[in-house]
Design a protein that fits this description.
6-stranded parallel β-sheet; alpha/beta; globular; Rossmann fold; 2 domains
Length: 415
Amino acid sequence: MLGWEFPPYFAGGVGIVCYELTKALDMIEEEIEIEYVMAYGPKDKKALSKLQVTSAGTQEELELSNSVKITEVETYLGAYDSFEEYSEKVKEYTKKNPIKSQSDMMKTIYGPNILKEVELYAQRVAKKCKDKNFDVIHAHDWTTIPAALLLKKLTGKPVVLHVHITEFDKTGGQGGDQRIYDIEQRGYEESDIIVPVSNFTKNRLLQSYRVDPSKLKVIHNGGISDMEPTLSRKYSHEKIVLFAGRMTLQKGPEYFLRAAKRVLEVEPNTKFIMIGSGDQLPAMIELSHELGINESVLFHGKYTRAEADHFFSIANCFVMPSVSEPFGIVPLEAVAKGTPAIISRQSGISEVLHHSLKVDFWDTEDMAHKILSLLTYETLNSHIREEAHTHFEKFSWEAPAYEFYSLYLKLLQRN
């Protein structure tokens, strides 16, 4: 497996998915050995190396067996880094470690730009892995595509490309960076099997990338195994509506705030909590002032797993207004905590989470009506959260793991 995130180093849902899938594959009775090749920066090396300690270290805490090995590859490129964020990291590094020439820079972990860093990562992966004895290459998203294809060229091993998000999704379906699009396109053309996480993503690949339909196999994500399902509530005298996720265009925070304004006109004793950080955070704070609702909106910023549990346990409802969401596992966190969810129809999770209220992200009037319904009608609120909670167990990772295992076997037979 090639990836950019794995606990304890992860920035979002993809890291959780990678861990849950790895753990589920590890539990299949047939012997599967997984070498998870991941990125790390120099400051993380000491901590990350503990992942290989199986007696009393992090790997045991993550419930992984000796059949799972973590291999580190030098890079500072993060899972969700933009070109701007990567450039800032380069500036910060070079201030502390002056680089005298371009050739000097190429000897460091950094490339002069994000695309060069992805290329360097591919070369480092190839150097470390080309002589290893493995059967299948399982790659996660665009940043691992060059590495996966280079390994395939050097070893002849098949590639499973696991698509969690596309460049189009990151920009809310409004195009994207052509350079990243070109890398994705090459990956879809040269991979042996492509696994989108939803039919929503499958349709994106068919329409925007013209992917060969015969190579596509949808496998929906499971839930989060370490969440303790509960229906207990800690409601305060105020009604609480929760947004949880990265503050980016893709996640639709603007639509959440515009729906909040309509709700507050009817139910002024309501608090809207937004947890998460991202490039849109300053703009959303400014928008809350423009709408005149800033006193009713709490921006929490980055949050931990423990903080997420707390916020879900006190919220009367959760809203995911994503503009373009390939899957979206956060609503499953809400379900686990007994919090009724309102989710965007423009998401993969809407295909499988049936006990929820669904809206079009742009229809803030409908979103406000549904929020008010959950805040006002306790019978509706209880019914939705109890039904969703009852079906929570169906979001196990066992079924997706066996589907991937079957794909691996087919590839081995084909090759």
